[in-house]
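Researcher: Structure prediction, please.
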Amino acid sequence: MTFFRPLAAAVCCALLAATALAGEPLLPQLKAYTTRDSWRQPVQPFRLADNSWYIGTEGLSSVLVMTAHGAVLIDGGLPQAANLLLQRMRELGVQPGELKVILHSHAHIDHAGSLAELKRATGARVVGNAESAVLLARGGSDDIHFGEGLTFPPVIVDRIIMDGEAVELGGVHFTAHFTPGHTPGSTSWTWDDRRDGQALRIAYVDSLSAPGYQLLDNPRYPNIAADYRRTFALVRSLPCDLLLTPHPDKSGWTPAAAAAHPQPMSCRAYADGAERDIEAQLEKQRRAKR
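Model: Predicted structure follows.
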């Protein structure tokens, strides 16, 4: 069985096509955690490269990569997105049992919330590093920054990976790059695809923000500022013809932003902007301590 096959004409397959909202209602809010509408707004899948598809919502990325031996999913969005993602996979010709591997960026509810249900429904193996595995197994409980505020269904990691290690399926190699800061276990992924007959190096780079974080003298994460700086340097060096991010607006991938910014930013520009924001946040916290 191969995944290199024609797709239904109803599926939008043009790169950065209009991806108009298909009149679908928002996914429901969770009782304990209120999110932006864009995070719950379904959009039509669109093709990123020959074998890589965006199947997430307007505000939260999920990327499906098809190989000769099955499919790989990167990130799962909110807990209520599981059925939507399974539906999108079927629309692209991927049955639940054909999803073999689930990768993720970091263990927060808006990216790992559906992983437990997706694993149960598909039998796919979840891959992650040791730092993320602990938080995933706790379902986000005792988060360094958010405590019990952003919990989600716990999920067990089936394979622990190391920095620089590759996960291979059907001849496609997904290389893990540890990019700590947003969480201690934050991980970015790179792989090769093709588009318009040309090789394309894709980088799915984790979030580089610090929303409300204590960046100075944080007893739970003493080296957080140093980790961010190392991460910025690493992100600049990634093989990166096409940048994707867990929140697509950070790299220009929302349907609304695509019209104004048809080409996403580079990895270098993404790291540069994030570094300016973190340094400004650090300076503000320093001034508050004086």
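Model: The CA atoms of residues 77 and 111 lie 4 Å apart.
Researcher: Thanks, that helps.
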